[in-house]
Structure formats: C-alpha cells, structure tokens
Amino acid sequence: MITSLPAELRAPMPAELRGLPRDGARLCVVDRAQRRITHTHVSDIGRHLRRGDLLVVNSSRTIPAALNGERAGGSRVQVRPWVRRPSSWDVIAVSPLPPHAPVPLHEGEVLHFPGGFVARVAHRRDDLPSLWRLERVSGDGFASLLSSGEPIRYSYASAGVSIEHLQTVFADHPGSAETPSAGRHLTWQLLLGLRHRGIDVVDIVLHTGLSSTQDDDIDATHPLVEEWFSIPASAVRRINAAQRVVAVGTSVVRALETAVDATTGRVSACEGWTSLRIGRTTALRACHGLFSGLHEANGSHLDVVGAFLDRPLLEAAYAECLTRRYLWHEFGDAMLVT
Amino acid sequence: MAITGASRGLGRALALALAREGASLALCARGEADLEAAADAARRYGGTVVALSADVGSPPDIERFAATALAQLGRVDVLINNASDLGPTPLPFLSDAPSEGLQRVLDVNVIGAFRMTQALIGGMLMRGSGLVLNITSDAAVEGYPGWGLYGASKAALEALTRSWNAELEGSGVRLIAIDPGDMNTAMHRAADPEADPASLRNPDDVAAAMVELLVGGFSGAGRVGVSL
Question: How high is the ipTM of this complex?
C-alpha cells in the first residue's frame, strides 16, 4: 500500500479551478467481476453503468465548521464540532492559527462565540479524549457557525477555495463539517443525462464529522465518531428496486449499511446516529458499487474501499493510480468500483 | 419558498400574499428593520417565516441565507429572485455613468441571482420539481434613457433564464422571467420621481396576480408578463 504520498499528488483545489470541467477529473474504473482496471474521466462514468443502476448521493451541505471563540482570560480558541446535538456539541479545540495545534480546555470554563452563542465545557469524551463536550448556555450555535464560521481547510488545500466550491451541485441539507467530496465531481449535465438513460440518482443525508483531530498520533488510530444520517422513504423505494446500488462516497456506504436488514438485504427508511465501522471484513448488504476519491493509507475512508475490493485488486488499482499520477484527496481524481 | 429583496415593494407584497396562502417563507434583504417588519407582518398569517439580513451581492451572505433557509424550512421548492439594484440615481445616461455602478448592478441582479439559484436549485432537481422566478423589467428588451445599467442586467438575467430552461427541459424544474410592469415602489420613485403614482401599478395587486399564476402552476416557461 502507498505509505507516503508525494506532496504534488495532493490536489490543492478542485478540477474546475484547475482549468478542467467540474466532471473532468480522471476516473479509475475497477471491474470486480472481470478483475479489470481501466482509466477514463468522470464525465464518462455512464459507459461503466447500466440501465437499472442507481447512484445514491449524499446531499448534506457543507457548513463553515471552524468557529473562533473567546475564553475567560480573553485568549481565542477555535472549535470544530464533530458531533452536533441540539443542546451539546462534541468538538476538537485548536489554535485559531495554522497549523491549528490542539488546545486543552478546562472543565467548567465558559466560551463566548460571535452572534451570542455561549457554551460551557463539560468534560472530555471517554472514548476519544480529543473531543470536548460543550453544553449550550445560551444562543444558537448553528446560526453562529453559518454567520461567523470558516470552512475547514487542510494544509494541502489552497486558501482560495471558497465554500461555494466545496458544495456538491445537489447540496441541500446543511450540516457537514467536511465536504462529502465524492459527489463534488458530479454535474447536473451528467446526472440528467444518466437519468435520461435509465440510470437514476437519489439522495440520502449523512452529516460528516471531521477527518482529523489535528493530532497525528491519535489520527493514526483511525478514530471514528458517530454521524447523523437520514434515509427518507422516497429514496428507500428506489434503493430497494435498483439492480445495482452505487454509493457515491464512503458516507453513503456508512448510512446505507447501517439501515440495511442483514437477512433480507433491504434498506428501511430511518434516521439517527451511526457508529458503524466498515472495514475489509465487512459484508456489504446494500451497496453493490462505490464511486469515491483516492484516500491515503491511514484513514477510515480507505477501509471502506477495502470492503469492496480484495487486497490484491485494491493494491493494483492504487498502484496504477500512483503510476499515472492521479491526484489524491477531496479535490483530486476518482475511482469507480463495480 | 425563498424571496430575496423581501423588505419593500414587490418582494414584501409577494411575501405577504404567499404567507396568506400558507407558504413557509425564507426572506432576505439588506435593511434589517424593514425586513423584520415585513416578516412580522407575514407571520400574522401563522406560517413559518425565516428572515435574515443579507446582501445578494455578497457570496458569503448568499451561502448564509441559502443554508439558513434550507435548514429551517427543510426544503425550498420556489425561489423568487426579486432583489435588484437600480444603480446610481438619479439615473445617469450611459455616456456619463460610473462603471462601478454597472459592476454593482451586475453583482446583485445577475451574479447574485445566479449564485442564489445555484445554491437552491440542486434540491429541486434531485426531487424533480421546482420553480425559479426571476423578476425582470421591460428595460431588458426596450431602450429607455437612463435605464441602461439596470436594463443590461435584466437582459442578462433573461438570457440566463432562457439557457437554464433549455438545459433543464424535462427535469421538472423551470425558470421564469416575469415582468411585473411599472409599480408604485420606492425603487420606481428613485428612478422616476416625476411619475404620477396613479399611473403606476400597486405592488399588492401585482403580487396577488403572481400568486394566482403560482397557484395555477404557471403553464409556461421563459418570459411572461403580469395581467391585472
């Protein structure tokens, strides 16, 4: 497996800001039945799908999820909510300045945020001490995020990428801390054309948490935190009627495999929190294919790809992508597993 | 439903007329006091009314308004791009107009409406149903002294409407450029202070007629006028 990715293969900005069409990224297609790896572009994805296939996308909208607040002594701290419940958030606390190193909070201290949102630090989470439980004292934290938050950007991403460029073209349910990025590649020109050919698209919602605690040692342990998802009845009918369900993004896999009945293989309408961990030994019941970006070796996203591909095929596909100088991460190139 | 420029004139009249029909509304405008007053008036009909001070000429404001509208209403099926900037007043001849005036008019009337539509049309396309109403003007198709900046922006908005509709044929989502006619509003008074108010349409009457069209499902697409 790729253990160190050359820096120049981390895409700093999305395709449409690199002089390509939005759906112009490269696409590695892995046909599991034929054990064949081919290369094309996202705009040609229809040639690798057939009538009766269903693309399931995540229509969660990215919110500006880094919020600077003031501590009792007047110093500033940035919080990034990983889990947002109505009256409490689980956040990582970091310096407002790059590289945003973790900042320890004190139990009981009160934080003041723009827009009148005030929260009290309750305690660290037992299962993941990088996360602090904030309890709402007054104000509306979600409104504060929307009015004063900044989108979360990692060091390889260009500062010029505005939140407008983080959104998918179907982003409709605000709540993700990080862009459900596989769907960013898709365009309505492409999707309406696929629908016309009997390859439908339907949306579910999963509000993504964070992919980094800003502490490399902790990140190396693949911490996985619960995420809120919703699968509406209208989507379920089409998901259960589809010949092949192609999940667009690992978040869709997490939601659908949470909602599937292990015996019947049928998905039910539901919403709530999922803590499902998907890995190479997971038996997939709801998803028959995956459209995803390219992920680094030390993350839970790659574990999801590993549930679709056996190790030799996964390694062969990633090795080809590396040789062909594909770009990695949320603004990079893509892979379709069928 | 989302309405931009909802604090005064046609936008306010549309908000009230749609609230009376039971619509859930998200309203924005720059002027917070006028917007809150319009929202309070709309709330008297008992429905959900979300009001947010926002400038359609500002991309962060568009994201904030769209996200708030989607989060609080759950979905937006109808967008009315009503917010418009007239440009410098008294209306200058094009030979004399500052180019910054054209920039602002285009930022609000064209790019703002374009961004707002992009932010909200995705859900409509996914569901296969929705409507975007772009408020236009006969200045988009006729040449009137002084109305060149505004007219250029509305002509551009109508061109976007036409192409967008052509792209979305069969999708269940339509865009309509709607010309409300000359109305007795603060904007019209700023543009033409000499006009006899009796010769102008009442924005409440225009809003009522537009609501009739909306309730009737708007059989057409493209550019339409409003008959009273």
Answer: 0.94
Give me the catalytic one of B112, B150, B164, B185: B150
Determine whether the interchain pair A61/B125 forms a contact, defined as Cβ–Cβ distance below 8 Å.
Answer: no
Cα–Cα distance between B15 and A333 in angstroms, integer?
Answer: 44
Q: How many domains does chain A have?
A: 2
List B178's β-bridge partners, or say none: B135, B224
Q: Write down the domain spans for chain B.
A: 2-225
Mutate to test the interface with A, among B65, B73, B125, B168 (most CBs of A within 10 A): B125
Interchain proximity B126–A164, CB inside 8 Å = no
A170 touches B: beta carbon within 8 Å: yes
pTM: 0.95
Query: What pLDDT score was predicted for residue A217?
Result: 87
In angstroms, how far apart are the furthest CA atoms of chain B? 50
Tokens representing A280 are: 């190479």
| Residues A173 and A282 reside in one and the same domain | yes
- Told to judge if B150 belongs to the known catalytic residues of this protein, a careful annotator would answer yes
Chain A within 8 Å of B63 (Cβ-Cβ)?
yes
pLDDT at residue A1, as a whole number: 58
Percentage, residues of chain B above pLDDT 70: 99
Range of the domain at A229: 7-62+158-337
CA distance A127 to chain B (A): 30
CATH number 3.40.50.300 is the correct assignment for the domain at B2-225: no
Low pLDDT (below 70) residues in chain B: 220-221
Model pLDDT, residue A2: 60
Taking alpha carbons only, the member of B203, B198, B204, B208 closest to residue B185 is B203
Nearest to A184 by CA among A4, A8, A11: A11
